[in-house]
Design brief:
flat, alpha+beta, 46% helix, 3 helices
């Protein structure tokens, strides 16, 4: 029999996500805190957005906070692309 330690992030009595490391669970919990703090910030804007859209936007911004911080500091973020492995060329003599 195996013993598995799991860390569960719970918000308002609802289980949000389960992790196998405390570090990952803490990072996700912090990201949810950031998203919760972004909600009223976006709601007070003059944008006419549905509540669901505001929640999705808050979650997106929080989950991409490093890129967002770079942009706010005047930097840029290159789109993340998947590098394709180089093909091995076979030389025929």
């Amino acid at each position: 029999m195996a013993v598995i330690t799991q860390y569960v992030v719970v918000r308002e009595g609802v289980e949000k996500m389960t992790f196998t490391s405390k570090k990952e669970a803490d990072a996700y919990d912090k990201m949810l805190d950031i998203a919760d703090n972004l909600l009223p910030f976006i709601q007070q804007s003059e944008l006419k957005l549905e509540e669901n859209t505001i929640e999705q936007l808050s979650f997106y911004l929080a989950s991409n906070k490093d890129d967002l911080l770079s942009l706010l500091k005047g930097g840029s973020t290159a789109p993340k692309t998947v590098k394709k492995p180089k093909k091995n060329l076979e030389v025929v003599a």
